[in-house]
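Two proteins follow. First one:
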Amino acid sequence: MAVMGIQMVVTLLMASIMQRVSPHYSFARWLLCNGSLFRYKHPTEDELRTLAGKQKPKAKRERRTNGAVDEKPLTVPRDIDLHLDTEPITTIDALVLRYFLEYQWFIDFALYSTFIYLFTEAYYCLVDAQNEINIGVLWCLMSIIFSIKVLFTVMKHYFRSEEGGERSVCLIFAFLFLLIAMIVMIVRDEYLEFGLEPGLASICNNLEIFMAKQGWQWSIPFAKLAFKIALVALCSFLGACLTFPGLRLAQTHLDALKMAADRPMLQILLHTSFLPPVIVVVMWIRPITRDFLLNAPMGGKSVELMSNSAYNTFRLWIIVILCLLRFSLTRFHLQAYLGLADRWVDQMKREAGRISMLEIQRKISRIFCYLTVVALQYLAPIILTLHCVFMLKSQGGYSWGLYPEAPGFTPVIDSPTIQPPLPSSEEEDDSEDVQAAVEQIMIALTTLRGLFTHLFFQGLFSFLTWWVSVCQIVTSLFGLYFHQYLGTS
C-alpha cells in the first residue's frame, strides 16, 4: 500500500464497483439492449402454413425396409410472400446469445481498465509521483491479454465447425501472415520506424551486463534470433485470430452502406471508419509521414512542420480518435449484421423448390444467436489497438502534449519502515524474513525496470499496434473482394 498509494485505493475501488455494479448495470449489456438494435423474429409454423396456402399440411412419410416410418419435416415453397417482423432486443433476449457472458465481462473490464488508465494519467499530471508504479499500465496490459484471449476463443469456435472450411481459412491466413512478418523483420528502420533493432540491442546489452555479474554466459545473436522468432510466431497467431473479424468487418461494412443509401453523411462516416487501419499503417512508414512532415519541400526549401516529439504525440492522438470513431459506429455495423436475416429471406424468394419450415426458423434464429460473437469480432480489435497505444505512450516515454511528462518509475528500496514491538523472538525472525523477501522483490522489480528500457517498449508496442492494423487491412480487403465478386448476392 505504501508503494502504490492512492492508485491502489482507486484500483480496489474500481474492482469492487465492477463486481457489485456489473450484475445490475453493464455497459456491454446496454450497448446491445438500449432499444436501438432490432432483431428479426422467425415465423411460426402456423404463419408459414398460412402463407403456403395449406392450413393443415401433412408431413411426408418414408417406409424403411424394417417397417419403421420416418416423417420428413414440413416444407413450404421458397417463393412464399414472407415478411419478417422486428422487435427491439431486450435483456431477456440477450441472455440466450452465444458467448454473451464472455462478451459482457470483457467489454466491461475494458471500460473500467480505460477509466483507471485515464485516472492514472490525470494523477501523474497533478502529482509528482516518480516513486510509484503506474498501475494503469498493468490494467492496460491485462486488457491486451484478454483481447487476444477473446479473439482466440472465437477462433476456436470456427475450428470446431463440422464443415472444416473455416479451419482451413484460419490456417491459410496464419501461414500468409507468417510470411509477411518474416519479410517485415528484414525491413530497415529507415522505412518502417518501429525501433525494434535499437530496443532489442538495449535490452540485450543490459542482459549481458546482468548475466556477467551473475557469472553466466550470454549469447547476444542467439537472444536476438530467439526474440524475432517468437515475435514472428506471435504475428502469425494474431493474424489467424484476426482473420474472421476482418472478413466480418468487410461484410458488415458493405451491408451498412446499403442501409445508409439515403444518408450521405453516414456513408462518409462509415467509409472513414473503414480507413483507420490504413492510416495507422501509413503513419509508421517513415518516408511518407515523418520525413515529409519534418522536412516538407516548399518552394525549393525544406520546412519543418513539426518536431519529432510533436509527431509522436500527433500519431498517438490520431490513433485514439480513429478508434473512438470506429467504436461510435458499432450500432450500425451490428444492425447491418442483423439485417442478414431479411436479406436471406429475399434471396430465398428468388430460388425455386421447397424448403423445410425448421430450416427457415433455424437460419433466422442463428443469425441473432451469433450477435455477441460479431460484437466481439468488431470491438476486440479496437480495444486491442487502443490499449496498445496506451502502453506505447506510458512505457515508451511519449507524451500526450497536455502536460510535462514525469520521469520513469524508480522503486524506493531503502525506504524506512516502522516495526512494532514483537513479543517473541520467533515473530521477530518471521518479520525479518518477510522484510527480506519484500526487499528482494523490490530489487527484482528494479532490475527488471533497468533491463526493459523505453526503447524496447517503443519498438515492441509500435510494432504490435502496426501489425494489428496490417492484419485488419489484409483480411478486410480480402473480405470486400469475396463478398462483392465471389459471394452470393
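Second one, unrelated to the first:
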Amino acid sequence: MASVQADGRAALPSARSRSRRTMLILLFVIGIVAYADRQVIALLKPVLDREFGWSAADYATISSWSQLAIAFSLLASGWVTDRFGVRWTLGAGLAGWSLATVLHAAVSTVSGFLGVRIALGVFEGVGTPATMKAMAQYFAPDARGRMIGLLNAAPNLAAMLAPLLVSALSGYTGWRGTIVIVGSIGLVCTVLWFSQTDATHVPARVDVNAWSGKGAATSRPVVGGTGRRLTAAFALGKFLTDPVWWFLLFWLPDILHRRYGLDTAHLGAPLAVAYAMAALGSIIGGYAPAMLAGNGLSHERARRVVMGLAALCVLPLPLVLWIPTLGWGVLICGLALAAHQTFAVNLFGLLTEWLPHDQVGRGTGIGAFCGNIGGALALHIVGGFVAAGQLLPVLGYCAVAYVLGWGVLILCVPVRSLVALRKRADANAAQ
C-alpha cells in the first residue's frame, strides 16, 4: 500500500501504478477497436458484393492498397511518434482511422472505398509504433514483456468478438449503420484517451527501478552499432515470420474447408479455438521469460529459450495436410498461431527493453513495415501455389520461418554483446 506524505499527497509509486493500469486498459481497448475497424469491411463483404457488384479484382485492389498504406505509414509514424510523443500521435491516429471507418458509410464506388481504406491505413499505421513507445516510456523493463503479451492478445479477442458484433448489428441497422456504430466506438475511445492520458502521463526520465517496485537492476538501453543491429534483427525477424501470420489469418478458413469439408456455418467454432490459442500464446509469451529467469539464467537468455521453443512448435504445421481428424488439425494450426504470438511478443519486448525509448517508435516502425511488406509479398505468392493445389511448399516455409528468425537474432544480437554493453554502461554511470 502506498504511504501518505505529510501534506496528504499519496506517495508516487501508487499513483504511477494506477496510471500504468489506466494506460494498459486504454491501449488494450484501442487494440480491439483497431482490429475491428480494419476487419469490418471483410465481414460485410458478401453484402457489399451484392449491393455494388464488386468483382474479386475490385476487392483485391481495395485490400492491397489498404495494406500498402499501413506499411508505408509505419515508417513515417515511428518518426512522428518519437517526435511528438505517444499521447498526441496515438490520439490523432485513433481519431483519424475511426473517422475513416465512419466515412465508409458515405461512399458507394470502388474509388470511394479505395480512398477511405487508404486513409484508414495511413492513420492506423500509427498504432503499433505508438503502443510500443508507450511500453518503453511508461513501463519498467522487467514488466514490458508481460504488458506487450497482454496487449498482443487484443486482436485475437477482436477476431472472436467482431463477427458477433457485426452480425448482431447488421440485421437491425444495415451495413451503413453497422459501420457507423463500429467507427463511433473508436471516436468515443479517442475522447477517453485524451481525457485520461493527461492524468496518466508520467515523465519518461523517472528512475525505472522505482517504477518496478523492486530494487533489482534493470537492463540499460543500447545505442550505436549494437542498437542498429538490434533494429535490423527485429526488422528481418518480422519480415521472415509475419508472412506466416498473414497466411494463416487469410487462408486458414480455406484450408479447413479443403481438408475437412467445413462450410461457412461450421467454420466458426474451429476458428474460435485457433484464435483463442493465439491469444493464450501471446499471454504466455509475455510471462514465460520472467518465469524461466533465475538460477543462473538471465532474463535475456530466458527470452531466447522461449523464442526457440516457440520456433519448434511451428515445425509440425505441414502435417495438417495429412492428419484426417479435424480436432488435431485445428490444434496444430492453433499451436502455430500461438507460437507466432509468443515469438512476436518477445521480439517487441527485446526492442522496447534495449533501445532508448526515444528510438523505439522508429525501430518499431521499421520492423513493422518490413513485416507488412513480407506479408503482402507472401499473400501475393501464395495465391499461385493455392491455385495449383500446392500447399506443401507454403506450409514448409511456415514451418521453418521461426527457426530462421531465431537464428538471425542469435547471430546479429548475441546475449553476450548486450550484457557487455550493459556492464560498461553501469560502470560509466557509477563513475
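SUMMARY FIELD: Residues 219-426 form a domain with the Growth Hormone; Chain: A; fold (CATH 1.20.1250.20). Residues 154-200 form the longest helix (47 residues).
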